[in-house]
Write a structure and sequence with these properties.
The structure is a single chain. The protein is of the alpha/beta class. Helices cover about 40% and strands about 15% of the residues. It is built from 14 helices and 14 strands. It has a seven-stranded mixed beta sheet with strand order 2-8-7-6-5-3-4, sandwiched between helices. Strands 9-14-13 form a three-stranded antiparallel beta sheet. A two-stranded parallel sheet has the order 1-12. β5 (about 165-170), α8 and β6 form a beta-alpha-beta unit. It is globular and about 60 Å long. Bound molecules: 4'-deoxy-4'-aminopyridoxal-5'-phosphate and glutamic acid. Glutamic acid binds near residues 39, 41, 102, 127 and 128. Glutamic acid (GLU) binds next to α2 and α6.
């Protein structure tokens, strides 16, 4: 606690995913052979056709400030993408391009939440939701789900979590970290509950849309009665292997999009111009251009599940999308392994880092203290070696 700093920052948690990645980097610099399965980051290079578009943009002198909410051409390609992939119709006033989906989420929280407003978060949720909400004065209301229900929130749970203070519902589907995907019917059942509460705004984070092993993706905004109060969040980081390019976007009711534009105008002036040009090319390309990466993630999912299911005390659901497994490892709580006392998922994740030299993320960061998250956006060799080390460490 530093009294020179604001209460706001003193209360803010450090991003657990980024902290673990930094720790792994630090240990590697000390010469330790760490396998990093903590960060959700594709290990592919950005496809050449996208890189070429960025190079062309530099040579064509795209170097000025862009419109705050994004180039008109990019907004048009986002509109076309929403129609093509999601059957969602937006006009340009409803689209805002931001510095990653993360900034899009931050904008939404800042413009919708007043201090004391409650935001329902089905657990496990993506690590940054909770702190982004708290930064705006909001109160995260965690809804615990179970591995038996594939980590999905039921309509009855949603209903029970709603209070007069509920302002929003936030979730990701496919979910980071569980990989679960809400079907259209499941979303409809949640929407039916929300019918009684017309003022609740929904954030549907669909950044893993294309990393989907079921083949069908549904969006809350596809329901006419939800369209005017749902913000659809997406981005290119995951499916196009563009994490560092920092481009995300929303399709939203116009009043929310305009408010996001306003805050962004005061905070960033808009997203990077070269990255925006490259993303036009990425989004206009047929989705088949990135299928090789999705196919590879699918193979790795089978590989890692087979290996993990062979380790005592690892209970896995079968993730339907994204590139994480989220095993329940509570079997180890209360045990001492190789001198390490394991009382919770954080102890277990630190034990794996120290004894197996494998970086994972504690489930606590995602609102689920019984699990750890393992990213399989890594090579087959790394996955095989990492799980072998984990198995040796716990046996
Ligand atoms: N939402 C989810 C569910 C994520 O996993 C991530 C991870 N990057 C983000 C949003 C943020 O994406 P971006 O890198 O575009 O900021
Ligand atoms: N979304 C990724 C993850 O969950 C990237 C890290 C981050 O932005 O927190 O690991």
């Amino acid at each position: 606690m530093n009294t020179q700093l604001s209460d706001r920052i003193n209360k803010l948690a450090t991003s657990a995913t980024l902290a673990m990645a930094a720790k792994a980097r630090e240990l590697r610099a000390e010469g330790k052979d760490i396998i990093g399965l903590s960060l959700g980051e594709p290990d592919f290079n950005t496809p050449d056709f996208i890189k070429d578009a960025a190079i062309n943009a530099i040579n064509e002198n795209y170097n000025s400030y862009t419109p705050v909410d994004g180039y008109v051409e990019l907004k048009n390609s986002i509109i076309t993408k929403f129609k093509r992939d999601n059957d969602l119709s937006y006009d340009a006033s409803q689209i805002v391009v931001s510095t990653g989906a993360k900034q899009a989420l931050y904008n939404i929280a800042q413009v919708v939440i007043n201090p004391g407003d409650e935001v329902i978060l089905p657990c496990p949720y993506w690590v940054s939701y909770s702190d982004i909400i708290k930064l705006s004065g909001g109160v995260p209301v965690e809804v615990t789900t179970s591995i038996e229900n594939d980590f999905k929130m039921t309509p009855a749970q949603l209903e029970a979590a709603i209070t007069p203070k509920t302002k929003m519902l936030w979730y990701s589907s496919p979910c980071n970290p569980s990989g679960s995907i809400y079907s259209k019917e499941e979303l409809r059942a949640l929407a039916d509950v929300l019918q009684k509460y017309p003022d609740i705004v929904v954030v549907s984070d669909e950044i893993y849309e294309h990393i989907n092993y079921l083949g069908t993706h549904a969006s809350m905004a596809q329901f006419d009665d939800m369209y005017n109060r749902t913000v659809t969040v997406n981005g290119v980081a995951k499916a196009f292997a563009m994490t560092g390019w920092r481009i995300g976007y929303i399709g939203a009711p116009t009043y929310i999009a305009r408010a996001c534009n306003k805050i962004q105008g005061q905070v960033t002036s808009g997203a990077n111009c070269i990255a925006q040009r490259a993303v036009i090319t990425a989004l206009e390309a047929p989705v088949s251009n990135i299928k090789y990466m999705i196919d590879e993630f699918k193979n790795r999912r089978s590989l890692i599940l087979n290996l993990l299911n062979d380790i005592e005390g690892f209970k896995c659901n079968e993730p339907e999308g994204a590139f994480y497994v989220f095993p329940d490892i509570s079997h180890y709580f209360g045990k001492t392994i190789k001198g390490h006392v394991i009382n919770n998922a954080t102890d277990f994740s630190m034990f794996l880092l120290e004894e197996a030299l494998v970086a994972t993320v504690t489930g606590d960061a995602f609102g689920n203290p019984s699990c750890i998250r393992i990213s399989y956006a890594a090579s087959n060799e790394q996955i095989i070696e990492a799980i072998k080390r984990i198995k040796n460490a716990v046996s």
